[in-house]
Amino acid sequence: SYILAYVLRPAHQLLQRRKINKKISALILLLVIAGFFILLIIYFIPNLFRESLNIQEIILEGQSIINGIMRRINLNNLNVINFSTDSLYERINGIILGFSQNIINSLLTIGEKLLGLAIIPVVTYYLLSDGELISKKLLLFLPTKDRQIFRKVAADIDRLRSRYIVRQLII
Question: Distance between CA atoms of 86 and 10, rounded to whole angstroms?
């Protein structure tokens, strides 16, 4: 959330210069980011399920091709060939089952992590909307004579850090 706040800070300042309240501008930025991720999820999850359905169709088509070849060559009566095709079908079904279980486990893990990441927008909102107030309150922990020096050093560090983070994201 700290890095996200630094990345969104220039847009947040732009909205403030256009006379939008800093809390509302922080909320707007977070809603835009959330909307972007929701659109990605809405687009990719149905495509993932469609592709998983296509795998089953491809396997069924492959089975019908193998059966057609066996009928043309007249190998249906040989027990060895029937046994080997049955074992091939079982192996393919096992692979599909394992693949499906991996997908479901991955989706559950992603869901758990998304729930854990739900706090990021909240912290980012407060860093954007009340970051200056938080900084001022943290200065109260320092001795009075060192506050001005620390404020200047912190402003320089803040400027350099925000430039660094934005440049790293651009690269």
Answer: 63
Tens digit of each residue's pLDDT (9 = 90 or more) over 92-124: 777 777 877 787 788 778 877 877 777 788 888
Q: DSSP string of the chain?
A: -HHHHHHHHHHHHHHHHTT--HHHHHHHHHHHHHHHHHHHHHHHHHHHHHHHHHHHHHHHHHHHHHHHHHHHHT-TT-HHHHHHHHHHHHHHHHHHHHHHHHHHHHHHHHHHHHHHTTHHHHHHHHHHHHHHHHHHHHHTTS-GGGHHHHHHHHHHHHHHHHHHHHHHHH-
Three-state SS for 155? Answer: helix
Tracing tokens 């969104």 back to the chain, one arrives at: 8
Could you tell me if 103 and 111 are in contact, meaning their C-beta atoms sit under 8 angstroms apart? no
DSSP state of 143: -
